[in-house]
Amino acid sequence: MNVAAMSNPALDRVAIARDKAGPGFKRTNANDLMAMDFPALKAVVPGYLYGGFTVLAGRQKLGKTWLALDFGLAVCSGGVGLGSIVCDQGDVLYVDLENGPRRVQSRIKALFPYDGVPDLSRLEFVTEAPALNNGFIDRLEHWRLSVQDPLLVVIDVLQRIKPPGNKNQNAYESDYSIWAPLQVWATKHGVCVLGLHHTKKGGADDPLEALSGSNGLSACADTTVVLDQDQNGRTLYVRGRDVEEKETAVVFNGGAWSILGEAAAVRRSVTRNVTLDAIRCNGQPMTPAEIASATGETSNKVRQILFRMAKAGEVYKIQGRYWVDPVYPSNERNA
C-alpha cells in the first residue's frame, strides 16, 4: 500500500476549507514569536519620549511650546531635557506652525543667557506644511532619509495639519483614521513624533482623558503626555502602550523646565512642611481640627498626613494632640 497516497481526512478538511474561504490570516506560531529578537524601544527623552506617536496636551499658556523646545534642544545637542535627563544626540525637525522665526530665536536665546547658544545644526525648523492627507507624510519621509539619525519630530500644533473629517464616520472613527498614518510612520521608523494639542475647557477628572475633541486621537497615539496645573503646581502626566505610567512634578522658570520629583512625593513633602510650620508657629501641640483650620486642608487629609508623619517620627501624638517633639514644650509641661 502506498502510504503517501493515503488520504488524511483532517488535512483534507483543512484544504477544502482553505479553498472555500480564500486566503487566511498571516499567522505566527507563538514559539516562533518568542524566539524573535526585537530592538529595544528607542528612548528619545528617557522616561517621557520614545519612538512612536506621542501627544503632548495642555491648556493654553502653560508652556507646552517651551517644553517641546526643551526636548528638541536637548536631543539635537545631546544635552539634557527637563533640566536633568541626558539625551542621545540625533536629528530633530520642528514643524512650528504658530510661531515665526523671530519668536523662536528669542526663545532659544532666553534659554542660554550665560553660556551662549550651543551647536544646534541638527535642529531644523519648518514654518509651513501641508495637511496630513496632502503630502505631509511624504515630506517627513524625505526629511528622515536626508539626515544622519532622525530621532524627533515636533508638530506645533496638530490642529494645523488636521484635514477635514469623514462625514460618514463618527468623531472617534474619523479622528482615529486621520492620525493613524502618522502613528504608523512613527512606529515603523522608530522616530518620536511629538504632536502638541489642547485640553478641554474645564478639564476632566483624569487629566489624561482631558484632550479636546474625541478620544480617537488619544486612542491612536502610542503615548499621551498631559501638562496640567492646579493649586499644587504643574504636573506632567505620562501614559502609553510601552512606557511606565508616571506623574512628575515640574517647575517652569524663565522658559526653562526642570523636574522637582515624583508628583505624589513632592506634594506630600509640601503638605508635611505646611503642617510642621503650622504646629511650630502655634507654639503648642495642636489637634487635627486645629491644624486643618490653620492650613486650610480638610480634616480627613490632615489626619492621613499626621498618621504618616507620626509613623515616620516627624511629629508625636500626645494626649490627642500633635507636637514636633516627644514631650510637651516646657511651659506646658511645667503647668
Notes on the protein architecture:
The chain is an alpha/beta fold and 335 residues long. The protein contains eleven helices and 15 strands. The chain has a nine-stranded mixed beta sheet with strand order 7-6-8-9-3-10-11-12-13, with helices on both faces. It has a two-stranded antiparallel sheet with strand order 1-2. It has a two-stranded antiparallel ribbon with strand order 4-5. A hairpin with a 3-residue loop joins strand 1 (43-45) and strand 2 (49-50). Helix 8 (263-282) crosses helix 10 (299-311). The longest helix is centred in the last third of the chain and has 20 residues, at 263-282. The protein is globular and about 90 Å long. It starts with 8 loop residues before the first helix and ends with a helix. The model has no long low-confidence stretch (mean pLDDT 89).
How would you briefly describe this protein structure?
With 335 residues, this protein is of the alpha/beta class. The chain has 11 helices and 15 strands. The radius of gyration is 28 Å and the shape is globular.
Q: Main sheet: which strands, in order across?
A: 7-6-8-9-3-10-11-12-13
Low-pLDDT ranges: none
Overall pLDDT level: 89
Order of helices and strands: HHEEEHEEEHEHEHEHEEEEHHHEEH
Percent range for β-strand residues: 15-25%
Radius of gyration: 28 Å
Shape: globular
Tally of separate helices = 11
| Major sheet details | 9 strands, mixed
Distance between the termini: 112 Å
How much helical structure, as a percent, in the residues? 25-40%
**Based on DSSP secondary structure assignment, what is the total number of beta strands?**
15
Task: Give the helix/strand class.
Answer: alpha/beta
